[in-house]
């Protein structure tokens, strides 16, 4: 029996019109749109909601879906579709899950993963200044996460600085590098400054940062992927909205080439993950931009 007519209409519009239009325009909400046809979006979303990511949807309900989905299934499908449109969840990962349900995952993604990683690496390299990137990387490779003898007894932030991450002098140095970097857009300068406020032992998400910055999760992902201040500016602490590992060094998801490196780094800082690889605990959202320190740096420069 079909669900509520208004829910059915909303679902039809979402998978048949809204999402295909976003895909065809290459909307920045997603780093990649692996499909663009309406029936493909329906397949991906329904396999992940009705099929719960473990089986294809038509093993659960009869075809056609719109005539056999109940209200709860319609709401779940609409919610997931809207999250895709907002960039809160990675469509490629959902597609992989759907294809896995149908025994087709390896055929589509395994052969292309190496090439895609190389493409993403090329984009990262091209985004950074060719002559200064190595110097900046060396300048930012401070002893991240260590403490001096003076810092060990301190637990309270001083001037917004987290003493368990960097000494105050080191922190001011990296903040100054961010503020004075000539090739950064104002958005990226603000992004990296905000990222500094995520403390050791915590994690946040692309969606949480995009909410604070009033931007798309895609824009956050792009900026983090091209972070010239790592590891002092801790992009490894940013995870996917569903608590999965997200991206690292240009690869995405738990099967990414560097996923284990990111997991080890986070675990060494005290972040915990469950048996499914999802982070335990709520994401950090208490972002700030160290306005007082920024004003001091500007005053010193004049």
TrEMBL record:
The keyword Protein biosynthesis does not apply. Its EC number is 2.1.1.63. This is Methylated-DNA--protein-cysteine methyltransferase. One of its GO terms (molecular function) is methylated-DNA-[protein]-cysteine S-methyltransferase activity. One of its GO terms (biological process) is methylation. The lineage of its organism: Eukaryota, Fungi, Dikarya, Ascomycota, Pezizomycotina. It comes from the Eukaryota. Residues 108-163 are annotated as: Disordered. Belongs to the MGMT family. Residues 187-271 form the Methylated-DNA-[protein]-cysteine S-methyltransferase DNA binding domain. Pfam families: DNA_binding_1.
């Amino acid at each position: 029996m079909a669900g509520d007519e208004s829910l059915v209409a909303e679902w039809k519009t979402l998978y048949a019109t809204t999402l295909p239009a976003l895909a065809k325009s290459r909307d920045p909400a997603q780093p990649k749109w692996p499909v663009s046809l309406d029936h493909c979006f329906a397949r991906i979303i329904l396999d992940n909601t009705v099929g719960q990511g473990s089986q294809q949807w038509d093993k659960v309900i009869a075809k056609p879906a719109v005539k056999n989905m109940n209200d709860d299934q319609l709401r779940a499908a609409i919610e997931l579709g809207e999250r895709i449109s907002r960039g809160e969840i990675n469509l490629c990962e959902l597609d992989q899950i759907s294809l896995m349900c149908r025994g087709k995952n390896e055929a589509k993604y395994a052969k292309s993963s190496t090439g895609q990683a190389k493409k993403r690496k090329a984009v990262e390299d091209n985004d950074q200044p060719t002559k200064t990137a190595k110097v900046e990387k060396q300048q930012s490779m401070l002893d991240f996460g260590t403490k001096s003898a003076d810092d060990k007894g301190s637990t309270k932030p001083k001037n917004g600085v987290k003493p368990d991450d960097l000494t105050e002098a080191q922190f001011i140095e990296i903040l100054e590098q961010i503020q004075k970097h000539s090739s950064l857009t104002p958005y990226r300068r603000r992004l990296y400054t905000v990222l500094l406020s995520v403390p050791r032992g915590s994690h946040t998400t692309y969606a949480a940062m995009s909410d604070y910055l009033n931007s798309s999760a895609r824009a956050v992902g792009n900026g983090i992927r091209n972070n010239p201040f790592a590891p002092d500016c801790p992009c490894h602490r940013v995870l996917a909205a569903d608590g999965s590992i997200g991206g690292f060094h240009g690869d995405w998801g738990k099967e990414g080439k560097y996923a284990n490196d990111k997991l080890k780094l986070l675990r060494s800082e005290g972040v915990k993950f469950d048996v499914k690889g999802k982070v335990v605990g709520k994401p950090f959202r208490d972002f700030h931009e160290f306005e007082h320190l920024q004003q001091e740096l500007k005053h010193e420069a004049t």
